[in-house]
Amino acid sequence: MGDFTLHTPETAPAESQPLLDNSQKSFGMIPGLHAVMAEAPTLLEGYQVLHDLFQRTSFDADEITVVWQTINVEHACHYCVPAHTAIAKSMKVDDAITEALRNETPLPSDRLEALRTFTLAMVRERGEVDKATVQRFLDAGFTRQQVLEIVLGISQKVMSNYTNHLAETPVDEPFQPFAWEKSKG
């Protein structure tokens, strides 16, 4: 694929121009993902809204990172894994958590591992997880609210991961030190 335009505020459809301005203000740049999404103003707006909403869930920074990166890694998103590695650093998430997620190795706590396991089940089973899977998640100290908040996180990441697969979005320079490729093993 890869035949998608990386829009600037000057080339984007009129409805996307203020959204790209929001991106510039929030990130100090227009991330390549947002530049691609600008082609479809409603997609970019939806993504920005879901990004903001997911950050306002009951999850803390470590847990938000676990949900985002679990989905990014499962979807083998060449763009989002490095981008969220940088975001995790800005959120002061322990590098041990980030590296475990990127490398699909055990997380430093049973609670975070339960969150990853449940998130993976939700993605792989398309939300059709059994009661025992939900109960194990609840038994790890999470809530029914958080079960549903994972749906929000998955929705956001489907938008970005699928867009990046279609567009072959180039990894932005600030994220390149965190380049990533899914393990073949």
Polypeptide structure, described:
The chain has 185 residues and is mostly helical. It is built from nine helices and no strands. Helix 3 packs antiparallel against helix 9, helix 4 runs parallel beside helix 7 and helix 4 packs across helix 9. The protein is globular, with a radius of gyration of 16 Å.
Layout: helices, strands, pairs:
Blueprint: H1 17-27, H2 32-37, H3 41-55, H4 61-74, H5 80-90, H6 95-103, H7 110-124, H8 131-139, H9 144-167
Brief sketch in words of this structure:
The protein is mainly alpha-helical and 185 residues long. It has helices at 17-27, 32-37, 41-55, 61-74, 80-90, 95-103, 110-124, 131-139, 144-167.
Helix content: 55-70%
Treating each run of at least 4 consecutive H or I residues as one helix, how many helices? 9
End-to-end separation in angstroms reads: 26 Å
What is the number of beta strands?
A: 0
Estimate the strand proportion: under 5%
Supply Rg. Answer: 16 Å
> Low-confidence segments, ≥5 residues, pLDDT <50?
none
Overall mean pLDDT stands at 96
Q: In one word, what is the shape?
A: globular
The sequence of SSEs as H and E is HHHHHHHHH
Structural class: mainly alpha
Q: Biggest β-sheet: count, sense, barrel?
A: none
Characterize the quaternary organization of these chains: single chain
Keywords:
about 180 residues, mainly alpha, globular
